[in-house]
């Protein structure tokens, strides 16, 4: 009798094992690397993104992503109804301030300050893959601590803390606390910190759907 496991079950098992910090071979398991492999193996995802900062800014966005880099953001807060779409083929961003199908329509560069947030984040560099890449960059000469298992809104997660060496920053961040969902291995919550230890941003990623099949023209209306 043979028994097979889905890739998602394998990811969850690896994350649970990582809490002891060692695999059966004695090698340290890095849950961030496991998460990065999970992202590599997917084709698309959609998530409700809720972010807040110490200054009181808050965002609620339905975030949709499809490889090789299509991004769509449907805003609830701020600017309710606004839609931003990035097309990696044209390299351009289309903005509908009052919703798709309404006027005005703006065609902009991703570097345009009109569509960057207060920390300079760009729509073309906003997906989970970019986040995990930034975290991995801090890891190379920094420290990674597996804090343990925690529950977030009923979801089992593994909490990991990554701190860069000295005062090193990546995209303005010196330290990340990341809660990785034990089911699919991807971030459920992320808190970023500046070199002085001040919290920069808290992001919750809810209701994630992996390998979602988007409607035709979803990214090119």
Fold and architecture overview:
By secondary structure, the protein is an alpha+beta fold. It has a domain of 117 residues: Inhibitor of vertebrate lysozyme, Ivy, CATH 3.40.1420. Helices cover 16% and strands 38% of the residues. It contains three helices and eleven strands; from the N terminus they run ααββββββαβββββ. The chain has an eleven-stranded antiparallel sheet with strand order 6-5-4-3-2-1-11-10-9-8-7, with helices on one face. Helix 1 runs antiparallel to helix 2 and helix 2 runs antiparallel to helix 3. Keywords: Signal.
Structure keywords:
alpha+beta; 11 strands; eleven-stranded antiparallel beta sheet; Inhibitor of vertebrate lysozyme, Ivy; 16% helix; 221 residues; 38% strand
Quick structural gist:
The chain has helices at about 5-20, 30-40, 130-140, and strands at about 45-50, 60-65, 70-75, 85, 90-95, 105-110, 145-150, 155-165, 175-180, 185-195, 200-210. By secondary structure, it is α+β, with helices and mostly antiparallel strands.
Rounded radius of gyration (Å): 18 Å
Describe the main β-sheet briefly: 11 strands, antiparallel
Give the termini distance in whole angstroms: 51 Å
- CATH architectural name of the domain at 1-41 and 127-202: 3-Layer(aba) Sandwich
Q: What's the pLDDT, averaged over the residues?
A: 88
Query: Tally the helices: what do you get?
Result: 3
Beta content: 35-45%
Outline, from the CA principal axes? globular
Looking at the structure, the CATH topology of the domain at 1-41 and 127-202 is Inhibitor of vertebrate lysozyme, Ivy
Q: How many beta-strand runs?
A: 11
CATH class of the domain at 1-41 and 127-202: Alpha Beta
Order of SSEs:
HHEEEEEEHEEEEE
Q: By helix and strand content, what is the structural category?
A: alpha+beta
Unreliably modeled segments? 1-26
Determine the oligomeric state from the structure.
single chain
């Amino acid at each position: 009798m043979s028994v097979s496991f889905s890739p998602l079950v394998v990811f969850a098992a690896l994350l649970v094992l990582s809490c002891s910090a060692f695999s059966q071979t004695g090698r340290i398991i890095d849950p961030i690397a496991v998460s990065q492999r999970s992202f590599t193996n997917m084709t698309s995802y959609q998530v409700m993104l809720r972010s807040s900062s110490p200054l009181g800014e808050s965002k609620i966005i339905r975030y949709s992503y499809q490889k090789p880099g299509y991004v769509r953001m449907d805003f609830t807060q701020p600017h309710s109804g606004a839609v931003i779409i990035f097309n990696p083929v044209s390299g351009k961003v289309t903005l509908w301030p009052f919703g798709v199908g309404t006027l005005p329509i703006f065609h902009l560069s991703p570097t345009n300050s009109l569509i960057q947030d207060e920390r300079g984040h760009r729509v073309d560099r906003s997906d989970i893959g970019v986040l995990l890449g930034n975290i991995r960059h801090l890891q190379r000469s920094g420290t990674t601590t597996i804090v343990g298992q925690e529950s977030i809104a009923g979801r089992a997660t593994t909490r990991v803390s990554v701190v860069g060496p000295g005062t090193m920053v990546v995209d303005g961040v010196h330290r990340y606390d990341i809660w990785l969902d034990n089911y699919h291995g991807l971030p459920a919550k992320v808190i970023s910190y500046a070199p002085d230890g001040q919290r920069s941003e808290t992001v919750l990623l809810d209701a994630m759907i992996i390998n979602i099949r988007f409607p035709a023209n979803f990214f090119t209306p």
